[in-house]
Design a protein that fits this description.
Helix 3 packs parallel to helix 4 and helix 4 runs parallel beside helix 5. By secondary structure, this protein is an alpha/beta fold. The chain has a single domain, classed as NAD(P)-binding Rossmann-like Domain (Rossmann fold, 3-Layer(aba) Sandwich). The mean pLDDT is about 95. The longest helix is centred in the middle third of the chain and has 28 residues. The radius of gyration is 17 Å and the shape is globular. The protein has 8 helices and 7 strands; from the N terminus they run E-H-E-H-E-H-E-H-E-H-E-H-H-H-E.
Amino acid sequence: MAQTSSGPFDLSGKIACVTGGNGGIGLGIAHGLREAGARVVVVGRNAEKNAAAVEALGGDSLSLVVDVADPNACARMVRDIEERAGGLDILIANAGINRRKRPETYTVEEWRQVIAVNLDAVFYCAHAAHPALRRRGGGKIVTIGSMLSLFGLPLATAYGASKGGVVQLSKGLAAAWAADGIQVNCILPGWIETDLTRQGKIDMPGLDERVRARTPAGRWGVPADLAGTAVFLSSAASDFVTGTAIPVDGGYSVQG
């Protein structure tokens, strides 16, 4: 992606797809991309939430109802974006789920569902986006990992495994697609206030206090805290940055 005359962080004229973009971290990132000038395509399974997100984003934002765990649906998603928006420059592979329970209580179906949405779908979306990005002369893929790719929690075994896989997948794609002008990087959110983590505070008594005590920033993050890093990794400012995994955690990971 060539630097624009408006500066290396400017995304004017760029088309960005955000999976899971209708709420939480995804919507926070979508707002950041929109404010930087990108046209945002919100992807999610809930049409009503998609519509609300598009209204909140404003401008010429679009939405698509897609099950990203279906590779054929991901291929259609990219075709639809090219037809409706004229191309694709940025993919934010954010969609994710969790099943908060001890590993010995998982059913095979629950394990596979988490891996399918959190890991398989990232590959499906990236695989589908690759030729579209290459046609544009390059582009950006930003995946969303987790601090649980570094740490383990007893109630998040499948989630942690899937997010660790996302980090390694991102590195492999970065190495494979650099020659196509495509940079692939991963963001590792720390403890962020979302619907998922609010339930986590209920499921894990004392979590709120432990997180605040260990985080130098002294608070939980909010979805908007991810926007700046996502804009950087989506812009020309990061053209020589690829294969990285960047914590956005208020310093949680630097303290024991």
